[in-house]
Design a protein that fits this description.
heterodimer; A: 311 residues; mainly alpha; B: 483 residues; 5-stranded mixed beta sheet; 30% helix
């Protein structure tokens, strides 16, 4: 497979996965903004996903519609859904012969959907959840279409690596931010709705309830989001998948340098697998999550060098 | 209002061949079934069909992008739902005419890049060849596989007021539009269920298969699985949709210049599994941009060193480099002579009479009669830089004349031919619009094949004779009937 094609597939998939994460995050935050007696602030979400300066954040942080418009339809925001879906579609356009017609049409529809004025008017004056739901559903349609129609060759391996790398970085990021906020405001540690919203935005709320019967504990949340291999958005689950898709690529590759990526991912996989709450506590929550993120980034860099780089 | 009523309003254009009506009320026989089918539909149904066609094009991304104030706007290539029909006997004639013409043009290219017999025998003056900007000395004595230069030709045909077919121009470099031939047919299948088999319309789906077979056959390496690639300028090219469609339908790799590299006169593509040698390049990049070391040094669309690999015979390029000398609009007027000279046959398809502005007598005649002429640049395409004498103002004509005098060789003039008209469905009624026809001919080691069909382009503006998509043209599905 052409290096350029592999890179495009990988990024296409990362963009869609990131959009999905952001959309879910926004849906839950919007719901909780309607559920709050204090003035609700979007600050942590804005800080996590955009590069806005503090003064600009202050202008919009208490206005849900402004935040949603900026994060979904903001042309000047590089991480806005409209920009990411446009990038994803541009990527797909240049590799149309490597994805199925169904998948291309699905992405193309996503693009036209988000350019539709109806959607913007939902965000501006009607029910924003309707707009978020439409987009989230299109994202799920994309996942299903990819799952059902794409051949399991090199292309789908690169797409899956992109998807799970993006997802693991997101989960680690969100967790890091959420725990970081606690350091400044220890009261949150016992605030049930704080943890509930975190779990809801990652889609792990129900699994948490089934797994832990004794209410919300910070350490249990950490265990679920990092170490639980049954939770599809956990770091361990995602890293395992990256590892198995990288292995599939390696088997069919004759280049000797490929081993380096295997070493990186293998090391990271064992590091997470053999972590316990105890060891994480000793190491410190933030240093632990930070080092995992760093390893994930270096896998991204290694992919750039070994598979995608233009010489 | 039933469908039958909208037919009554149709007015024939004077002095013009109408494809569907022989007189105001007399429908030509091949169209009768189509009209019967349409008459059963209400205006609402037809509008819905038109809407469906638009939606299908949009959702499949069959669009071209117009860049405006930094933002890309997706446009669809306008599609008219009423098909254009070519009878079996007409097709037999067209097919024979194009095969004959293409055969002669291929021999001409071989000749002009080697012995130049046609010049030595005084058929074509040498300055006609050397003054052509697309004549490339780099191609002299390059052995191309099977002596095929033109693998894919899109020869444009028009019909005069008595229905006679004329060749308007030969497109022998990188003719485009074939994906619309294929997609238009797919859309028609959705719009008019059962109508195609009822009318016994011949299929066009063979095209990618034949092209692929020809590409395989010209691989310089005699191996069972040669690497064939389609070289595209990239997503921002207006024909990008076509490049992806063809790559997908043939199952070949779609590459850009930056995916390829040349090492020791061999072409490689950069893959996730190291570099792989490329055997055949179906390029949709113009000659000028193909190799920055030989042609335009500023080109980033091409591959440095590609021409050296080509000249060594390590890679086949489709269409061959340097074909522009054969579809030059000044050389065009010599094609009937070529056919007589190389094949000893009478040309089947007529040429439109052409005046060379490089010729003093012709130039005077054209300047006197410019109102009745169409003046074109010899190396132009896409309908750019044309002067339509009947529609131009005095000051436009004066400015154009000045342009001509700077370098008369670069211009030709033709009497205005009134293109044939066909009914188009517009806002609930049928309106006559001018059309042309571009069949796609494929030339391989085993001869020339033409898929029964082609691209019918429509000038959607009332009275306009310019069918180019860049100038507000649209297209119709083109049906060739079985005998």
């Amino acid at each position: 497979m052409l290096s350029r094609v592999a890179a495009n597939l990988y990024w296409l998939s990362r963009y869609v996965e990131r959009s999905d994460g952001i959309l879910r995050m926004m849906k839950i935050n919007y719901a909780s903004s309607q559920d709050s007696i204090h003035e609700f602030t979007w600050r942590p979400v804005i800080k996590l996903y955009t590069k806005l300066e503090d003064e600009d954040i202050e202008k919009i942080e208490h206005n849900s519609r402004d935040v949603l418009l900026y994060m979904i339809a903001g042309k000047e925001n590089p991480n806005s859904i409209i920009n990411m879906i446009t990038f994803a579609r541009e990527n797909a356009r240049s590799v149309q012969d490597h994805i199925t017609k169904d998948l291309w049409q699905c992405l193309n529809e996503y693009y036209h959907l988000i350019k539709d004025n109806k959607l913007i008017s939902y965000l501006k004056k009607d029910d924003p959840i309707s707009a978020l739901d439409i987009l989230i559903r299109q994202g799920m349609l994309y996942c299903g279409t990819a799952e059902v129609t794409m051949e399991r060759g090199e292309g789908s391996s690169f797409m899956n690596i992109g998807k799970y790398l993006e997802r693991s970085i997101q989960s680690a990021d969100i967790l890091d931010v959420k725990f970081g906020t606690i350091n400044n405001d220890p009261d949150l540690l016992t605030d049930t709705s704080y943890w509930k919203h975190l779990l809801l935005s990652l889609g792990g709320y129900e699994l948490y309830l089934k797994t832990y019967r004794q209410g919300f504990e910070a350490e249990n949340v950490l265990e679920l989001v990092v170490l639980n291999n049954d939770f599809p958005r956990s770091v361990l689950y995602s890293v395992n998948h990256i590892s198995s898709y990288l292995e599939r690529l390696r088997v069919n590759n004759n280049l000797s340098e490929i081993k380096e990526i295997s070493i990186l991912i293998g090391r990271l996989e064992s590091r997470i697998k053999y972590s316990t709450l105890q060891s994480i506590r000793e190491e410190g929550m933030h240093p632990y999550l930070y080092s995992i993120k760093k390893d994930l980034y270096s896998i991204g860099d290694a992919l750039n060098i070994q598979y995608f780089a233009y010489s | 209002m039933s469908g039958a009523n909208f037919l009554n309003k149709y007015e024939l254009t004077s002095n013009t061949w109408d494809e569907m009506f022989s007189t105001e009320h007399n429908i030509r026989a091949p169209y009768q079934k189509v009209i019967d089918y349409l008459s059963k539909e209400s205006i609402d149904d037809l509008n819905k069909k038109e809407e469906l066609a638009k939606r299908l094009f949009m959702s499949q991304g069959i669009t071209f992008t117009v860049y405006n104030s930094g933002e890309g706007i997706e446009k669809i290539f306008p599609f008219d739902i009423i098909p254009r029909i070519i009878t079996a006997s007409e097709w037999t004639f067209i097919e024979a005419g194009i095969k004959q013409r293409l055969k002669a043009l291929n021999i001409f290219l071989k000749d002009i890049y080697s012995n130049m017999f046609i010049v030595k025998d005084g058929i074509i003056p040498i300055d006609m060849i050397y003054s052509c900007p697309h004549f490339l000395r780099e191609m002299f004595n390059v052995a191309v596989p099977y002596d095929i230069y033109v693998h894919i030709a899109g020869i444009d045909l028009i019909r005069d007021s008595d229905g006679t077919y004329y060749v308007l121009e030969d497109n022998l470099r990188t003719p485009s539009g074939v994906s619309y031939m294929l997609e238009n047919r797919e859309i028609t299948k959705r719009l008019f269920p059962d109508l195609l088999p009822q009318c016994r319309v011949r299929s066009v789906t063979e095209y990618p298969g034949i092209l692929y077979k020809n590409l395989l056959a010209i691989s310089p390496r005699q191996i069972s699985n040669p690497n064939i690639v389609l070289l595209s300028p990239g997503v921002y090219n207006s024909a990008y949709f076509e490049h992806t469609t063809l790559a997908r339908l043939m199952g070949v790799e779609l590459v850009e210049g930056r995916d390829l590299m040349v090492d020791n006169h061999k072409v490689y593509m950069k893959t996730t599994n190291g570099r792989q040698q490329v055997d055949v390049i179906y390029r949709r990049v113009d000659d000028e941009y193909l190799d920055p070391l030989v042609f335009n040094p500023g080109s980033i669309l091409g591959v440095a060193g590609l021409m050296s690999a080509y000249r060594k015979g390590n890679v086949a390029i489709v269409n061959a480099v340097g074909n522009g000398v054969a579809d030059d609009k000044a050389i065009y007027s010599y094609v009937p002579d070529m056919i007589k000279y190389y094949l000893n046959e009478e040309p089947l398809l007529k040429n439109v009479p052409t005046y060379q502005l490089g010729n003093q007598e012709h130039k005077e005649y054209v300047f006197e009669n410019i109102q009745t002429m169409v003046v074109k640049k010899t190396n132009g395409s896409g309908g750019y830089g044309m002067l339509m004498g009947y529609a131009a103002s005095d000051s436009e004509i004066a400015a154009y004349k000045e342009e001509i005098l700077k370098d008369p060789r670069q211009f030709i003039a033709q009497p205005t031919i009134s293109l044939s008209a066909a009914p188009c469905y517009m806002n609930g009624s049928l309106m006559p619009r001018r059309i042309d026809l571009r069949p796609f001919a494929l030339c391989g080691p085993n001869g020339i094949e033409i898929v029964p069909g082609g691209l019918t382009r429509v000038a959607l503006t009332e009275g306009s004779m310019v069918v180019n998509s860049s100038q507000g043209g649209g297209s119709k599905d083109t049906w060739v009937l079985a005998s």
